[in-house]
Amino acid sequence: MFMSTPSTVVGPTTPPGIRRGEPAYRRAVLAVLAAGLATFNALYCTQAMLPTLVSDLGVNPTEAALTVSAATGTLALFIVPFSILSERFGRGRILVISALSATVVSLILPLAPSIGWLIALRALQGALIAGVPAVAMTWLSEELDPEALPKAMGIYVAGTSVGGLTGRLIPAAALEIADWRVALWATGGFAVLVGIAMAFLLPAQRRFKPKQIHVRGELSAMVNHWRNPRLATLFITAFLSMGCFVSLYNFLGFRMVHTFGLSEALVGLVFLMYLAGTWSSAQAGVLTSRTGNGLGMIIFALTMLVGLGIMCIPNLAMVLIGLFAFTAAFFGIHSTASSWVGLIATENRAEGSSMYLFCYYVGSSVVGAAAGLVFASLSWAGFIGCLALIVLLILGIAMYLAKRERSVAHQQVSMPEAEKLKARVH
């Protein structure tokens, strides 16, 4: 994930960054790990229980899926405002307020008297969660010594991944012995405890220097990124790929329950496939360093298509194999596209990253919600076919980007250094 660039300018009066081995380093790493665990647990707490919400609340799958889409949608809308506010009020303050308030809402969710109230509370929760992904990495970048930063970043990302898993596994397991309200209290209680731990562990900021907020300038920089064709297509890739991914996982549980007769707990274990993404995200850099970013994205998009095709086979083992391939390929695309944004956006990089994240979560919300209508009106094969059409669009974008990448590389062979920089930007 990407955040606003640090406002700290290191100078003679700037305190040194926190180094590995110092007590403050251990506290900082544990704090951001807890922040990722708490907030991403909260973000996905209803996804594994969608079939239960349908049966217990008497709603259709599309309405149940809105409990996920509402949270990711408001998260998308509030990432940029939180990032801008942190320039004035500090990253640490935003982190603590966001994590604590979002997790406290987790304890209110089970009190929702209807699906409408549950969706509204999830929208509020998503807005509050946004502060963590908006500033967590920026906090680390500002406060830690550069040599200590990579490992700490990796631990934070791991925390978000594991948090997403616990947000699905805890309620899925609780549903075996209790109703959905108790399941939400179980996962919400875990999130609150971890959030409190984060607030106590997070060291005070020493290197942050507040600056005046210029909203028009920030928004103008983001809009200008859309004028770069490569950045624009990467933003669209984020929208399409995350929308397709969330759509599959939102409605796969219904397939597992109704077709294969799995229990809620076993359906929750399906989310362990996310670990395939943990592996592929790390391997994506190795692949693209050999093939180039464009060709790497083509390979990942083709793998997503193959995975979707395998999932049409009415056999549980084949569905799981297809899901593994699809999940690994999605995270490969996300890892490649998100890092590519940082390489292309040589100016106003934070704004480019924020726009990528905005499109990423808007895709989760909009496409995930629309997929409910498709799922309700088509067969499983038809639903998978519609997702395949989205992946074909991603494949087309990847082919375009690969062509532009080869063109830029060819131009740079004979260009002077000043013109090489201009070519990389455009």
Automatic annotation (TrEMBL):
Its main location: membrane. Keywords: Cell membrane, Membrane, Transmembrane, Transmembrane helix, Transport. The keyword Lipid biosynthesis does not apply. One of its GO terms (molecular function) is transmembrane transporter activity. The keyword Chaperone does not apply. Gene3D superfamilies: MFS general substrate transporter like domains. It is a multi-pass membrane protein. GO terms for cellular component: plasma membrane. SUPFAM superfamilies: MFS general substrate transporter (SSF103473). InterPro entries: MFS (IPR011701), MFS_dom (IPR020846), MFS_trans_sf (IPR036259). The chain crosses the membrane at residues 28-44, 64-82, 94-113, 119-140, 152-170, 182-202, 231-251, 257-276, 297-317, 323-345, 357-376, 382-402. It is found in: Cell membrane. Residues 27-406 form the Major facilitator superfamily (MFS) profile domain. Belongs to the major facilitator superfamily. This is MFS transporter, YNFM family, putative membrane transport protein. It comes from Corynebacterium spheniscorum.
